[in-house]
Automatic annotation (TrEMBL):
<protein>
    <recommendedName>
        <fullName>Beta-lactamase</fullName>
        <ecNumber>3.5.2.6</ecNumber>
    </recommendedName>
</protein>
<keyword id="KW-0732">Signal</keyword>
<dbReference type="GO" id="GO:0030655">
    <property type="term" value="P:beta-lactam antibiotic catabolic process"/>
</dbReference>
<feature type="domain" description="Beta-lactamase class A catalytic">
    <location>
        <begin position="40"/>
        <end position="264"/>
    </location>
</feature>
<comment type="similarity">
    <text>Belongs to the class-A beta-lactamase family.</text>
</comment>
<dbReference type="Pfam" id="PF13354">
    <property type="entry name" value="Beta-lactamase2"/>
</dbReference>
<dbReference type="InterPro" id="IPR045155">
    <property type="entry name" value="Beta-lactam_cat"/>
</dbReference>
<dbReference type="InterPro" id="IPR000871">
    <property type="entry name" value="Beta-lactam_class-A"/>
</dbReference>
<keyword id="KW-0046">Antibiotic resistance</keyword>
<dbReference type="InterPro" id="IPR012338">
    <property type="entry name" value="Beta-lactam/transpept-like"/>
</dbReference>
<dbReference type="InterPro" id="IPR023650">
    <property type="entry name" value="Beta-lactam_class-A_AS"/>
</dbReference>
<dbReference type="GO" id="GO:0008800">
    <property type="term" value="F:beta-lactamase activity"/>
</dbReference>
<keyword id="KW-0378">Hydrolase</keyword>
<dbReference type="GO" id="GO:0046677">
    <property type="term" value="P:response to antibiotic"/>
</dbReference>
<feature type="signal peptide">
    <location>
        <begin position="1"/>
        <end position="19"/>
    </location>
</feature>
């Protein structure tokens, strides 16, 4: 009797391993089509199935790090140390001089706005000025780093501000993570009670409503699929793009969740080619796990 129960379980385990190996091979094939370093970590949340490629190597996060910063801010809100409606003054000197910042573009002399709006700019608009203001409210990069490490995450480094990054192309490598660490942080955010239900819903809303990066994780997925994500992008110097990234949570048609991080680093090629790598990685995982 025991043998009859064991055989189906062993067969199912074998099928899972075979499917994982096939998917990992597909990810390698996709990565081989671009000159650059590609890292992927994907998790089918409800089953624990994974797919990985170079998932424990270090990659510059660029604006993907605005997700853990937002998470840390909302933890402070839940503790009562910050309030979403509190006014936040942004001085002219805090506006990043270059790089993406709608706050700077709209308010060149500085502005005061509610913390909720700064948070939205940080996540939905990927605003560099907003990011630095949130880091200030958290007590700096070291305090933010400790907040993330307190969640059990060790391979995410939050070391510099946007202001410092825009002045030196190489500084971005100090803000790094492994793909698997970012996927784990997304899993913890989504499944553990690290935020109140209201704060969790707010962050998911901002990540879902972002207009940034429509051709990345979302690029090849069916219309109507919900994707809560945070992108990251460096500049391109002499044909080299140091970071084209996306990390997020994809809700599958049956209600299950695909958590995925894709980093494309030190890559040559067009923007469409680099974003296409991310889209193909997400689609490969989606196809494998939706059919499964």
């Amino acid at each position: 009797m025991k043998r009859s129960f064991l055989l189906p379980g062993l067969l199912l385990c074998t099928l899972f391993v075979s499917a994982q190996q096939s998917l990992n091979a597909r990810l390698q094939q996709i990565a081989a089509t671009i000159k650059g370093k590609v890292g992927v970590s994907a998790l089918l949340l409800e089953t624990g199935q994974t797919a990985e490629l170079n998932a424990q190597q270090h990659y510059p996060m660029q604006s993907v790090y605005k997700f853990p910063i937002a998470l840390a801010i909302l933890q402070q809100v839940d503790k009562g140390k910050l309030q979403l409606n509190q006014p936040v003054q942004i001085a002219k000197a805090e506006l990043i001089p270059t790089g993406h910042s709608p706050i700077r573009d709209n308010h060149p002399d500085g502005v005061t706005m509610p913390l909720r709006e700064v948070l939205r700019y940080n996540v939905t608009e990927s605003d560099g000025t907003a990011c630095d203001v949130l880091l200030r409210l958290l007590g700096g990069t070291k305090a933010t780093q400790k907040a993330i490490e307190a969640l059990g995450i060790k391979d995410i480094a939050i070391a510099t501000t946007e202001m410092v990054q825009v002045s030196d192309e190489l500084v971005q490598y100090r803000n790094w993570s492994t793909p698997i660490a970012m996927t784990r942080l997304l899993r913890i955010f989504y499944t553990k009670e690290v935020l109140s239900p209201a704060s969790k819903a707010l962050l998911l809303k901002d990540m879902t409503e972002t207009p940034v990066g429509p051709q990345r994780l979302k690029g090849l997925l069916p219309k109507g699929i919900t994707v809560a994500h945070k992108t990251g992008t460096s500049g391109t110097v002499d044909g080299l793009t140091r970071a084209t990234n996306d990390a997020g949570i994809i809700t599958l048609p049956d209600g299950r969740h695909l958590i995925i991080t894709v980093y494309v680093s030190d890559a040559h090629g067009t923007t469409a080619e680099k974003e296409g790598i991310i889209a193909k990685m997400a689609k490969a995982c989606y196809d494998e796990w939706v059919k499964g």
